[in-house]
Amino acid sequence: xxxxxxxxxxxxxxxxxGQRVHRISLNAGFNCPNLDGxxxxxxxxxxxxxxFGIYVTTPKPLKIQIEDSIAYYKxxxxxxxxxAYFQAFSNTYAPIEVLKKTYDIIKNFDEIVxxxxxxxxxxxxxxxxxxxxxxxxxxxxxxxxxLQTTHNNVLKTLNRNHTFExxxxxLDLARKFKINVGVHIILGLPFLNYxxxxxxxxxxxxxxxxxxxxxxxxxLKNTKLEKLxxxxxxKLLTKEEYIKIICDFxxxxxKDFVILRLISSADKNYLVAPLWMNDKIxxxxxITKEFKRRGTFQGYFVG
Length: 303
Description:
The protein is of the alpha/beta class.
């Protein structure tokens, strides 16, 4: 029985493993077709990977990243099981033999019980999915696609250089191999009105996905979005607005979608705004209170 008004990632993992499991973020040294010139050299207008993990700005061998992270979180949280989360850049954007060698590193660690791979929907093919699927014998496996919105005009403005249709093809391919799919969605996109955001929720609710990871649009240093923000051309959500829109969204997705994350965070050395977003515990508590105030829950308007 889920006690919270939403199906949290922590609840999901406790159901699977009977205990707390911690996800460790890794930088495997991959690139991105939206940065290396294949699609673009500018990247997404909001993207600065340095804000999302210590191993981006201070790279270490992947084995050392895992060893250090496991030791740190064992001591800090007393956890004994971990998920290897290949997070930085596009983690399927390499030759198949490179991908296999990279993912195989987790086999050296008995504490690792899960393999999560973050990538773009246009960096997937059947051979790669077959490889990822092979780890399901021994690990909990998810692929997380950076979609951000289902609206192609907005994806173009963000310089994503893929479409919603590209995502649908990648989703079908993952599910062909029975791989769990998580979808990244950004709330507060200035090029998206409220009704279009609700449409994002409604469209996703009809798909065979297993989870959603929420981001709030935020401004990082050294991005095109920073320039637009400083010029007064975009407006960011307030904390109260974010709490409202995420509750509205969650009410419109099925109860069995895992909420992989309720709000993003960023390194304070790179974050321009909104500064309140890093107070994650407070935001999560406020979201829970808002559901209680409404008397609603995840899936309230589904079906």
